[in-house]
Specification:
The protein is 26% helix and 14% strand. It has 303 residues and is of the alpha+beta class.
């Protein structure tokens, strides 16, 4: 797509979202219903994720790293990740487990996620909640990292009026930024509040100049989402954690996993019975957040 056509597409996209939101906000419920009806005319079929043999990804094994029973768990998970990629996408099922006994509340995962995904102001994929337990003077702290739960029964998917969000064959919940109209339905529907709206603002907007690093493209879903001039390709879209899908598909673990100093985050293909994630999933001391909501989150916690 040439630059002029791209800018025209971005302009049309942003205007359609903004007009939808402004119309609904000014005129109330009656116009909101009309606006929602109008969006249905833009309804597109859900994006079909390729399956089968064409989705197999083969990546060379480590040549210089010794792998044995004493290896860092990151090495084992990396090896198992590459193994999972040799199967068609529909045969993989990504799962994350977080051991709250190992999390020290350093927020390295939060910061590295912001850096990896070039997240703008107001968008955080992996917040860490601090929980105080006990009574003074016998207090202790628990830390709870909270990425997208990648639910098996996601509440965010059926409320999207334009099929911009869906569930991939490997269990990851995705968002098509080119289709999303920014209505916010999915943000409201998520019981974990793990979706954010990209308003297009930068951290340095109130300073003399925006820093160059804030205008770098992010690479979610294996694409380059630009922030050229006054337009951002993701502005006006709902955004969320994707388990760093763009990293997974080149054989790299999610950024939050690799930067966890306490090795508190486990990740892998739960369909592999010999994997570390399957081993950890057999532990008895597990917890799921808001289990009563019926979303069956893929992310679980060890307490």
């Amino acid at each position: 797509m040439d630059k002029n056509k791209k800018e025209e597409t971005l302009l049309t996209k942003n205007l359609s979202r903004k007009s939808f939101l402004v119309t609904a906000g000014v005129a109330g419920i009656g116009v909101l219903v009309a606006a929602e009806a109008a969006t249905k005319s833009r309804l597109v079929p859900p994006v079909e994720i390729p399956t089968g043999e064409t989705t197999i990804i083969k990546i060379d094994d480590f040549k210089t790293v010794k792998i044995d029973s004493k290896s860092d768990i990151l090495i084992r998970m990396q090896v198992e990740l590459k193994k999972a990629l040799t199967k068609p996408v529909e045969q993989r099922k990504w799962k994350m487990m977080i051991d709250t006994r190992k999390c020290v509340g350093c927020h390295a995962c939060t910061v590295s996620c912001i850096a990896e995904n070039k997240l703008p102001q107001g968008v955080i994929y992996r917040p860490v909640t601090t929980i105080e337990m006990g009574t003074y003077p016998n207090l202790k702290m628990k830390f709870l990292p909270q990425p997208c739960m990648q639910c098996d029964t996601p509440s965010c998917v059926p409320v999207c009026p334009v099929n911009a969000t869906g569930k991939r064959p490997d269990g990851i919940i995705n968002i098509d930024y080119d289709v999303c109209i920014g209505c916010g339905n999915c943000i409201e529907a998520c019981p974990y509040k793990h979706r954010s709206m990209d308003t297009g603002t930068n951290y340095c907007d109130e300073t003399p100049s925006v820093q160059p690093y804030e205008l770098l493209p992010n690479h979610e879903y294996g694409k380059d989402w630009t922030r050229e001039g006054e337009f951002s390709a993701t502005e006006g879209s709902a955004r969320k954690c994707t388990f760093c899908l763009h990293r997974l598909e080149v054989g790299e673990l999610p950024q939050c996993v690799t930067t966890c100093i306490g090795r508190a985050t486990y990740f892998g293909d739960i369909n592999d019975p010999n994997s570390l994630i399957a081993e950890m999933a057999a532990k008895p001391n597990q917890m799921k957040l808001l289990e009563d909501k019926g979303t069956n989150p893929t992310v679980t916690y060890l307490m």
